[in-house]
Task: structure prediction
Amino acid sequence: MPAKKKLGTVLFHRFLSNDTIQNFANEDKYALMPGFIKPIAELLRNEHYKRKAMPFYTEEGIYLDGVEIELAKRNRVSCKRTVDFLFGVGNKWILLTEAKFDVSNPREMKVSELKEKIAHSKELVSNSRMATQIEANTIVLLKDENFSQLYRELKNKVSNSLHIVPMNVGQFYQTIFAK
Amino acid sequence: MEKFAELSIQNFRAIKSADITLNGITVVSGINGCGKSTMSKLLYYIFRNANSFEEIVGDYIKQSIEPYITAMNTVLRIAMQYSTSLNYRRFMMLREGFDKISSDRISKNVDYLHSLKANILEILAGEKNIKPHISERESFILRSALGIKVKDDVDLSMTVETIVGKIIEKLERYNQLVIERPYHLFASRMEDFFESDALKNVSLREYESLVYGHGLKNVPELHYIKKVAYIDTPMVIGLPISSQQPMYWKEINELAKNPPRKGYKLSINKLIKQNIMNGDASYDDDYFAGGFKYNRVDGKVFDLTECATGIKSFSIMQLLLKNLFLGANTLMILDEPETHLHPQWIVEYANLIVMLHKRLGVKFFITSHSTDMVSAIRYISEKEKCLNNVSFYLAEQVGTESYSYKYLKDDIEPIFESFNKSYDKLDEYAR
Result:
């Protein structure tokens, strides 16, 4: 199985096993991340992904919003915005992923906070004692319905320098997780 | 969904197959070179020619009498050798008299011919003693036109009688042909614009009756679309007319020059004038200072040909609205109307299209590359409750340089999917 896979012209590291994300979470200097490892299917459902059929079984990821909320409580500061999930890909790579399943109408696509979310998420990832690298591209998961229009709206509104790759759940699974 | 026309095309230039239903607003999308403009031109020429059958008959008659006009000129030239009363001016008068053949001019043409014949016969009667010399070339011309051998001792008076008789015979066929509307004339006219072999695979039906296509003997009168205009670029407005221009460029200028008439939709004009253009377009026929004008609301007047192309785009629609060209029997064919428009004005233009259709019943055939235009037409029609009259088509490549058109109804997702391939290209070049 190749270590990387392309979607279009963009290359991603593939998911190898849950070890990557677990090792990463265990090295979190705040020891919060292990408590927020959940099966991907559950993570997606919690973000209002409605399709019954789900290609994921045992694959896991970190609910990063939960980590931030807990961290903010602990430090008694207000929450900052983060992307929704972290996934472990390759041996030591972390993939940032944001879910936008609540957006059906392309005109409702709001992206102003994405830059901030990505920046703060990278800060949280760097809290790990484990030497990790962050994938250059951030995935934004969109609904299947009106996917192409949502895709275009997102790409039109976001600067190319942010390296956003919109995907639906099927493409996400095929690109990162499928063997 | 009310469908008033169906265009079927097979193996015509880049179009492998297309069955396009016109039912209100029809939007066709696809990459460059897939045949969208070919489709636009086919629609334009079919509807235009079917509605201008008198013009086709007139041109046919004019062409058929041309050899006899040439023969008559030859006779006059021969007669001039020995007559002092004939002059060159007669040649010019003869051609000018038949510059245009139309129903209101047939009887004048016939009267003119009788009068010309009488004049020439009178002159020839007075010059009986001198025999003309007829050159080989003149003999050939007369032989070709009249099918008779011509010698030096030819009776010129008899020849004039024969020629005039033939011309009148042709002219008198005009009314009969206009009523019969024979298909071969229509087909022949279409071959002026397209390759004849490929045209055999094109057909147009109006309410399921064939109005253009192989097997038709007589062209029926169109009931639904009586007026058609084709705009492939707004730059055409105000362009000096030349014979090298496509017919639709000349026509759009002529149509736009017509003055405003009472009864146009004020609310739509207000939309254009106040919300978009901040002014009015007009045409001034003054010989020196005339032309198309843009009258801004602050009172300043500009030459429209010097204005922004976006202003021209809306001006053409405003002019056609105000002179009542736009109506329920009008088909507007627009090639990439989003060209030269800011994204905000693309949406305004889409809104205008939907309003013209909803409130005046104007029919549209639109080709587009713009996500904003496609999206705006789709969602504005939905909001205005006329989505049922909107159809989208996407050109899909099926071979090398060959495309089939897929009917999408109101689902624009496949169009966006094809548009989104540009991001793969951007990633390829820019990452």
